[in-house]
Amino acid sequence: MASTIYTRIYNNAPIAIQNLIISVYGIKLFLNRYRKVYKKEFEMLKNKDFSILENEQKEQLERLSAFVTFAKDNSPYYKESLRNYKSPTSLSELSKLPILEKESFRSRITDFYTIQEAEGLAAFTGGTTGKALKVLYTTEDFQKRMAYLDAFKHRLGINVFKVKKATFSGRELIPNGKNSRNVFWRNNWMYNQRLYSTFHLNNQSIPYYIQDLNSLKPGVINGFVSALNELAIYIIQNKIELSFKPQAIFTTSETLTDWHRTNIETAFSSKVYNQYASAEGAPFITECEKGKLHYNIDTGVIEVLESDYGKEMLVTSFTTHGTPLIRYRIGDLIEFEEGTCTCGLSHPLVKKIEGRNVEFLMASKGNKVSLIHLADVVKGMPNSIIKMQFIQSTLGQLEVKIVKDDILYSANHEKSILDKLTYRFGSEMDIELNYVKDIKKEASGKYLLIKNLIK
C-alpha cells in the first residue's frame, strides 16, 4: 500500500520534486551500502596484494568451507539437503555436493533464507530465463559486494564518490504522459548521479540525451550494453563530437560483444570495462586495466559443467549469507583462458561469458525494448512466475507465454504484467497473455526469454 502511495505521489509530482524524491531515496540506499562494514572492506581491498595465486586460493578455500558450514547451520534447505555431506576441505570436494537448479530454488525459495526481509535487503531478478526470484542479502554482505565493485573501479583510477555518473538502466523514471519537456532523466544528488531512462531511447529522442550528456560531462558512464550501443551508433552515424571524455564506461546486465565495445569506445573516446555478477549473487568477474577479464576467486567459486548447451557455470558466492546458493546452475556459459595477466592480479582469466545476449523487440513507436527491460517485468513478483517468454511476429502484436505457479499467482500479478508491458511497448500494442503448461526450448537446448520473429 505504501509503495503504491509513494508511486502515485512521484508520478504526479513536477520534475524538481521527482529529483528530490529520488535523492531522498538515494540517501536510504547510501546508508545501506556505505557503512562501517563497507569502509573496512574497501580499505582492505584497496591495499590488498592480489599477486600471489597460492594465497588467493587458500583464502578461497577457507571462505568456501566457512560458507558451506554456515548454510548447513542456518538455511532450512541446506540443513536438509546437505545433512549427509561434510564441508569441503578442497575445491574438488565441492563437486560431491548436489547441483542446485533454478526451479528447485524458485519453488522452495523461502527455505533458503537465513534472515527475515526486515533484517536485510531484498534484490529482485527476472533473469534472462524469466523466472521471478527474490533474494535476501544481509546488510554486511551487501556492503561487502559494493566495496568489491568500488575497489575494482578504484584500481582503474575512479573515485566513485567524487566523479559525476551517468547511468542508463531499466528504472521507470518517466511517468506516462509527463514528458512534454523532453527531459528523459532524473537526478540522484546524494550519489552525484544522473539516471537516464532507457525506455524512451530512440532516434527522435537521442539528440536530447546527447545534449544533456554534453551539459553534464560525466566522468563515468554506467549502463546496459544495448542502450549505450544505441547511443554510440547514433553518435558515429551522425558524426557527432562530444564535448566531454569519460574516464571509464562500465557495461552491465547484457553480453558485451567486440562489436558493442568498438562502437561505444569509438563514440565516447573512452575505454569500456566489462563486469559480471548477478542479483542472485554470483562471484564477480571484472575487467582489469589490461583489458583482461578475471574470475575473482576471493568472491566465490565458479565450476564448469559440461552439458549439451556448452560450458555451464555452477556458482557459489561468499556474499550470499541471507540466501545461500551452493553449486547454483545460473544459466550462463563461461570459457576460461590459459595464462596470467601483467596487471598484477593473479586471479584466473576468462575468455568469454555467454547467455545474456542482447535481444530486442519493437515498441509501437519504434523504440527497442531489450531483453533486460523484459526480464525486469517479472521483478518483484513473489516467486509466482515459473517461466515467461515474449514473442513478436508483427510490429503491433505481442504474445506473452506464462507458466505460472497456480497457488501464488493472482489477478493482481496479471495486471502488474500488463501495466509494465504497456509502459514499455505503448498503449497501441496488442498484448496477449497466453498461460501454458511449459515453454519449449530451442533446438540448441537453450530457453529464450525473447523471440523476435519479425521478418
Percentage of residues assigned to helices? 25-40%
Low-confidence stretches: none
How many separate domains make up the residues?
3
Distance between the termini: 44 Å
Tally of DSSP helical segments: 14
The amount of beta strand, in percent, is 15-25%
CATH class of the largest domain: Alpha Beta
CATH topology of the largest domain: Rossmann fold
Count of β-strands:
21
**Gross CATH architecture of the largest domain:** 3-Layer(aba) Sandwich
The CATH superfamily of the largest domain turns out to be ANL, N-terminal domain
Query: Mind describing the biggest β-sheet?
Result: 7 strands, antiparallel
Gyration radius (Cα, Å) is 22 Å
Class by helix and strand content? alpha/beta
Q: Strand order of the main beta sheet, please? A: 9-10-11-15-14-13-12
**Averaging pLDDT over every residue, what do you get?**
90
Overall form: globular
Question: Please, could you describe this protein's structure?
Answer:
The mean pLDDT is 90. The chain is 34% helix and 24% strand. It starts with a helix and ends with a strand. It has 14 helices and 21 strands. The protein folds into 3 domains: 2-33 and 158-246, no CATH class; 36-150 and 277-354, Rossmann fold (3-Layer(aba) Sandwich); 360-452, ANL, C-terminal domain (GMP Synthetase, Chain A, domain 3), CATH 3.30.300. Strand 6, helix 11 (225-237) and strand 7 form a beta-alpha-beta unit. The strands form 5 sheets. Strands 9-10-11-15-14-13-12 form a 7-stranded antiparallel β-sheet. Strands 4-5-3-6-7-8 form a 6-stranded mixed β-sheet. Strands 20-19-18-21 form a 4-stranded mixed β-sheet. Helix 3 (36-47) packs parallel to helix 9 (139-154) and helix 11 (225-237) crosses helix 12 (258-268). The longest helix is centred in the first third of the chain and has 22 residues, at 53-74. It has 455 residues and is an alpha/beta fold.
